[in-house]
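Cross-posted from the bioinformatics board.
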Amino acid sequence: MPPTKPYSNIPGTTVFDADQAHKGYHLNMFCISLMKEANRERFKADERVYLDEWPMTGEQKQAVLARDYNRMIALGGNIYFLAKIFSTDGKSFVYAAALMTGVTQEQYAQMMLDGGRSVEGNRYVGEKH
Amino acid sequence: MASVTAGVAMSHVPAIGAALDNGRSADSYWVPLFSGFEYSKRWIATNPPDVIFLVFNDHASAFSLEMIPTFAIGCAESFSPADEGWGPRPVPTVVGYPELAGHIAQSVIQQDFDLTIVNRMDVDHGLTVPLSLMFGQPQQWPCRVIPFAVNVIQYPPPSGQRCFQIGKAIRRAIDSFDQDLTVQVWGTGGMSHQLQGPRAGLINKEFDRRFLDGLVSDPETIARMPHIEYIREAGSEGVELVMWLIMRGALAPDVREIHRFYHVPASNTAVGHLILENA
């Protein structure tokens, strides 16, 4: 019986625990490789060829090509590792956060200027406002 | 003898570094944030430390998933700014203090806290943004820095209680170093923020206020807060706040709050900032 995960009922949140880290090991290590300029250039030149050098699953590669960050997180990606992908694309955390929350970057930035996403109704899955 | 004179806490958002590096700190978006550190810059100019013991977390820059030390003390002569994916920040190389770092490592390990000793480590925005906020953009950082990296990337990070206790051990280690040195301990990261998934953008001002109040006046209680409460209330990345407890543990039980600043947002994050001196 695996230990219970008290954080599994937080909406829209994936805690990067040992299971996620195991699942996402190669995906995250691919991200780390983008910290070198030469690797960024090779990745940008042909993403598919570069990804095929890594023992990632087809699903993980597809999620990277599609820049589907929520999917990458579900498949074991950690946001600080995934940041190397959107940094390579010249994009910011705000850009990535807007993508993951399904709003435009302008809408997201405005929500932050208005004080951010409220915790009310966002503590537990199924919680009522 | 060396002594800890003050503690400083602040958030370490990468966009703050980018704003400074790209000459955008006078933009209307950033003015309120940087104005909160004007007092701090004057304070540190009149209270210059010889050494900063800087508690931060690495963001998949120096440590990949190959090695994940819970507590790592930087004992090198110097630490280069990391390339986090867009080239290294144009900031000075960080000059370390191998003799003091080695002494702290030995002392803290002998007090039953098992540290990882690191002799090569590039330092990312987690360490360099706090230096920029307090010192601006000098040619050289004005003091030596001992980086102390805490794992908050792979769950679980060390508990708040463990961080508070290790702070006390670090204080005892510094106190026993046989040179007259003024040491500040900085805790960085937080405050409420979540960078991932559909709940990204979470901010909890009430939680942050309670944390700031409690850290100053009742750290024993704050230290008992479980991880799940940070994550649920302050966002998945809000758990970085455990690092502030290392700073607090290194100070005396009673402290004077010299300065407090709080601002939302810096990019995705609630920025908090405290300067504390031993009472």
